[in-house]
Amino acid sequence: MIFRQLFEPESSTYTYLFGWQDTGEALLLDPVMETVDRDLQTIKDLGLRLAYTLDTHIHADHITSACRLRALTGCKVAYPAQDDLPCADIGVAEDRPLNLGDLSFRPLFTPGHTETHHCYLLDHGGQPRVFTGDALLIDGCGRTDFQNGDTAALFRSVHEKIFTLPPDTLVYPAHDYQHRHVSTVAQERERNPRLNDAIPFEEFEEIMTNLDLPYPKKIDVAVPANRKCGDCPEDAVEQLHRIGGKSPQGWPS
Prior knowledge:
Layout: E1 2-8, E2 13-20, E3 25-29, H1 36-45, E4 49-54, H2 66-73, E5 76-80, E6 90-92, E7 98-100, E8 103-109, E9 118-124, E10 127-133, H3 151-162, E11 170-173, E12 183-184, H4 185-191, H5 201-209, H6 219-226, H7 236-244
């Protein structure tokens, strides 16, 4: 397996690149519009061709490049089936994993940040990895006050779907604002200040209620575009830049 963790600094988004040497195929998880050229060049440099894009959820802080990448490469666009997006070629669900060669991306339905959010579990070579989107961040979690977010659902999702994975499972989030790259299930269960094992739901609910976060600056542009898999007006990315540049520390978590 070929694996790369790529970073988009404006939204502090991690895009993950997976490649399978036997077929020469690649998959991009949570790709960002601004990094299309970089991502395609990286794939080319590795001797791969893009077969799939895959998103964890409908993002509010950036526009996915899924549709543009499909136009440029002929790749298939995959989204959680529950999003019911006409623009998606493939709908994934817990009973419908997405395969890339011998790699199987097992969807985990983890609502809370959004109502259809999915994480993806990849167990290959004896080292399980979970790609947690915005459900679980390193020492944090995604906010729950828009896109039908639900604090109780997020608490259950993390504790029942992620924290029940083997303790050495590597945790790769969709964002990090302090240049951290990876955590583990054991580490998050021990020290996550919102969701560690010692924090009951009532305390978590109080934490989330009192975050006092501003309305997401880019949501009114990003969400409509992402409901079309990133097939957005020509000036949509420019609109995002005009809205306010780099996201404030910790946004949108």
